[in-house]
Amino acid sequence: MMDKLKSVLLAALVMVSMIQSYFLAYNMPNMKAKVNTEQDYVKTEPLGAEEDAKNLIFPEMLVLHMGGDKHTVFYPNKTFYKEILGKLQGREFKGFQRDSVGVVDWNEVRREDNGIELRFGRPVPFDLLRKVFKIDGDFLFSRDSVDRIWIFSRADREEVRTFFFSADGRSVYESLRADLTVGDVTQVVGFGQYGLSYSTGDGEVYIPDKPYDGVPQMQVPITRFTPEQMQRNLFFDAAITRTAQGNQEDTQIYTDGKKLLLVGQNGGWMGYSDPAAPADAVNDLVDNFMAAVQFVNQHGGWNGTYRLTQAPVPDTLNGATSEDNVIRFQQYYGKVPLVSSGSMTFGYMQLTMQQGAVSSYERSLLQLDMNTQTNKKVRLLPGGNDLRQLINRAAGGERIEALYPAYRPSEAKDVITLYPVWVIRLASGEERIVTESGPVQTKTNP
């Protein structure tokens, strides 16, 4: 669906370019100017709350290793996830030393030692992690990015070791003066007794040994941001905005002669493009991230919980050349991620940045009611060998980076039904739904 939307946006850009040329020559008779009064032009209005950058960076999951090749996984919707993360955010990590990733036998540590992995789901620069954790920034490679933190205590000695894994897959950074004790690790790992047992074959994908019932099915009322609201938020002067019909019945195009706003999915999704953003510039992920957060704060706000995540592929349509200038935020409901499916694009914001300037901006115009849910049902997601077979089938031979529970949204009138599903994320960043949940037949552990 995302490729389809981008094709529509590309066609719209070409169309608007031709219309603009026609306007210069013939006063653009095919475009109808909106009839606006002076009172219609208003300053940017807050449609959602502003967000602090630090709240958009948190682990995709926590993996607990309990020795004896026993493991469990906590996702952000779990109480113990919040308690563990809060404890680690209060600790200090200093005295970094770079080494090869092979400095430790990670398979042995995974099987034998008590420990915890914080997995972020995408590379995060140290400069951004310092907004979330107390990390010493005064070391040589502080401009590097990491995708996980692994803290463990050795079974044969009274010591705790803390490693930050470089996104290049070849290096690790050990914090030689981390403010953690063996008792801290033991306490954190002790929470694992309250979670399902998970198994792994490759140390990357952890599969529950039994069915998972941690995500309920529900219906949630929705409201919509209107195209007029988004125009006032994105165009300097909404009074000069003109409209045109898109190449699909449910698509409308708005332009002020330079910038472009495309609204599709019957008013449920928008794509914004600003060709004035500088191209072929050197991009810095930290600068682009901070600029993207500020842009959303000022042009629509945040309608719920979001997390910095990995974009599927470089957004070449909008001039993106690397992951450093594609900033994607995954939307959560009840601390459970939302994943698009079928004809409904939903569950994320994405901005393409060029040296701190926004060249494209995509988001849903649907607002989920955060306080009202109806028709709640406990549902079971499969586990064990059944799930393993479904994962292999869904992956189709491609490398899998993560498995996690999510919601598949389905819209009907003024309500969205959230269906629990298992999702895999491939190395390319693409998310694929593995299977949906079924009715509960037997009681399982939480």
TrEMBL record:
Q: Show the Pfam families listed in the entry.
A: YycH
Entry-linked CDD domains: YycH_N
The chain positions of domain Regulatory protein YycH read 4-426
The name this protein goes by in its record: Regulatory protein YycH domain-containing protein
- Give the organism, scientific name: Cohnella faecalis
Q: What is the lineage of its organism?
A: Bacteria, Bacillati, Bacillota, Bacilli, Bacillales
